[in-house]
Amino acid sequence: MVFAYLINNLKRGRTMFKVGFYLPVITSWVIVSLVFTYMFNNSDRGLINYILVDKLHILNDYVPWLLREWSGNAAIWLMGAWKNIGWAMLIFLAALQSIPRDLYEAADLDGAGIWGKFRHITIACLKPTAYYVLVNMIIGSFNVFIQVMMLTEGNPNGRTSVLQYLLYDKAFGQFQFGEASAIGLISAVTIVILTALLNRMLKLDTVEKGGADA
Predict the structure, then answer these.
(1) Cβ-proximal residues to 52 (8 Å cutoff; 6+ apart), any chain
(2) What sign has the CA pseudo-torsion 7, 11, 12, 15?
(3) Can you give the pLDDT of all 214 residues of the chain as single tens digits?
(4) Which CATH number fits the domain that encloses residue 104?
(5) For residue 194, what are the contacts with CB-CB under 8 A and spacing of at least 6?
């Protein structure tokens, strides 16, 4: 939302920034995974190790980034954020541009400041969009698979694994199809429950807002 707000207020270069943010979204997960694998490679061939050890001499030895729990998880979620932030930015940008200018003009006449307009107009109008993005992000988090498979394969000892990779490993690695089916069912039920709760929250917020306006 922050990036969308900043880009929306630009007078020049708005299209360039939109393309730059959205380019990772249309890039294949496999290609992005290969790029991040190269960046976090555990040997001297990894870009981060090369910069930190060979160029800047900050570290003495090459770090096995993808074999450690914290750095492996960081690489996975950093890749997911970089891949999806452009989608969320465009959704928020479209919502920002749909806010009637009359609301801001009326706020100016009432003496509202920048923070007041942002809080009472921008944030208020973006609530439904924020719920929509949140629901999609939650559903997407349950579908994380390719980045784990390509980067860490759940190592070390399953500490970077996720539900979908666990399902895959149970079904096609250990051939425990019953447990894999149970994991899939639990994931589906959890997504349905969370989506229903978020939709309920959105409806309650809309009703309260309508009552306050009345």
Answers:
(1) 58, 59, 63
(2) positive
(3) 888 888 888 878 888 988 899 999 999 999 999 999 999 998 878 999 999 999 999 989 999 999 999 999 999 999 999 999 999 999 999 999 999 989 888 988 888 888 888 888 998 889 889 888 988 888 888 889 988 999 999 988 888 999 899 999 999 989 999 999 999 999 999 888 988 887 787 776 665 555 555 4
(4) 1.10.3720.10
(5) 135, 138
Number of domain units in the chain: 1
Distance in Å from the first CA to the final CA of the chain = 29
Q: How far, in whole angstroms, is CA 204 from its chain's centroid?
A: 26
Q: Which domain holds residue 26?
A: 2-213
- The answer to whether the beta carbons of residues 52 and 59 sit under 8 Å apart is yes
The amino acid occupying position 55 is: K
Helices (H) and strands (E) in the chain, counts: 11, 0
Task: Please name the helix (run of DSSP H) or strand (run of DSSP E) that holds residue 35, with its range, or none.
Answer: helix 29-39
